[in-house]
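hiii so um. not sure if this is the right channel but i have a protein structure encoded as tokens and i wanna go backwards to a sequence. like what aa goes where. can anyone help
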């Protein structure tokens, strides 16, 4: 069978299968009994906000990370914002982060009242380049906010040393790295606070929006608890302006069920990622820094003709996505964060080349073999076709 490629070229297509980029239903099927019992427990309790299910999940999530406190919030964006606000970071302060991330990271900094300062990334791991972060520090810098992207930890040893040297706070965006390790510690436990999203597609995903902040500092934990609930110290006593950012009981109950399976599911992701890396040719596969354990929220490859490769795979009914095609500093909403004299060359080059392949609990190694074969065929063909003039 022959299919049409870019510029009217033809790509030989020996297999046509439907492999979605993601499918959340297999986890639901695997855990249906436990999830159903959790839902029924909440529905019959008569308590749906800031109740015993949330307290139980917070305790379990803190214990999983080996910290004293976890605070459930409404979503991952709020988690980053409230972590910064708990540290007293706001108007006039600068927070260094990356442009190669979901816009939510930068949105949260601005919502806290601070100015995001965007720096370049390491070409191997796509996480914050410590040297670029160091060069961006000014007298107004208050915090470093690295993103553990795709499930791979940022270089926390270098960034923690940098933060300590300059007296900066270190807040970890762990939205894509539940359960990942760095230097023998779970991400989220290295900085003063770790911020998590439980958006349904995450390694630990809710059935709606939810998030959490973890910390070993009781004062910071108490401030996040207050800020998430209108700044209350106790009912109807408000110490400062806060917001409504409360994880509901149903999401907490579901997350406690899924937390018990997180390490097992991460191990499956690593096995599938290993099968990809062993089989793929003609694309750049993910790298891992020594001492870091990747949990493969996403399996991201690179190819100089990414768009053509994506189109060719779609013709084979292999669905792919790009995380992320437009860096934050090039988004219309955030042009004010860049200047004509300063570019992020690695970020901008990576954004033109990256492609996320299917990887989720429910995918199996036969599916991976199909994707590997499809990628190999497409790359072989693209390499034989000259680039357009």
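sure thing!! here u go:
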């Amino acid at each position: 069978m022959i299919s049409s490629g870019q510029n009217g070229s033809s790509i030989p297509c020996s297999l046509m299968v439907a492999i979605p980029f993601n499918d959340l239903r297999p986890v639901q099927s695997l855990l249906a009994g436990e999830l159903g019992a959790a839902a029924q427990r909440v529905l019959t309790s008569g308590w749906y906000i800031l109740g015993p299910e949330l307290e139980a999940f917070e305790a379990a999530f803190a214990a999983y990370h080996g910290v004293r406190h976890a605070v459930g919030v409404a979503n991952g964006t709020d988690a980053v914002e409230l972590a910064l606000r708990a540290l007293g970071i706001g108007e006039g302060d600068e927070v260094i982060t990356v442009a190669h991330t979901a816009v939510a990271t930068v949105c949260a900094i601005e919502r806290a009242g601070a100015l995001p300062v965007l720096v370049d990334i390491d070409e191997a791991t796509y996480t914050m380049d410590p040297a670029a972060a160091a060069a961006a520090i000014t007298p107004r810098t208050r915090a470093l906010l690295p993103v553990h992207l795709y499930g791979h930890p940022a270089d926390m040893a270098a960034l923690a040393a940098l933060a300590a040297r300059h007296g900066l706070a270190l807040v970890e965006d762990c939205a894509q790295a539940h359960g990942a390790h760095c230097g023998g510690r779970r991400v989220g436990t290295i900085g003063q606070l770790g911020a998590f999203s439980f958006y349904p597609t995450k390694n630990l995903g809710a059935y709606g929006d939810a998030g959490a902040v973890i910390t070993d500092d009781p004062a910071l934990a108490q401030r996040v608890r207050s800020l998430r609930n209108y700044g209350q110290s106790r009912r109807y006593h408000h110490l400062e302006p806060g917001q409504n950012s409360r994880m509901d009981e149903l999401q907490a109950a579901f997350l406690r069920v899924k937390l018990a399976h997180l390490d097992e599911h991460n191990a499956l992701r690593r096995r599938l990622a290993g099968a990809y890396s062993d089989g793929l040719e003609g694309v750049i596969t993910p790298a891992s820094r020594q001492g870091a354990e990747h949990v493969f929220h996403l399996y991201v490859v690179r190819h100089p003709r990414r768009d053509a490769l994506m189109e060719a795979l779609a013709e084979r009914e292999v669905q792919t996505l790009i995380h992320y095609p437009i860096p934050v500093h090039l988004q219309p909403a955030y042009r004010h964060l860049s200047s004509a004299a300063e570019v992020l060359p690695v970020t901008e080059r990576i954004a033109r080349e990256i492609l996320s392949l299917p990887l989720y609990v429910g995918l199996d190694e036969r599916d991976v073999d199909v994707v590997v074969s499809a990628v190999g065929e497409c790359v072989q063909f693209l390499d034989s076709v000259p680039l357009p003039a």
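oh and The chain has two domains: 2-22+261-384, 28-259.
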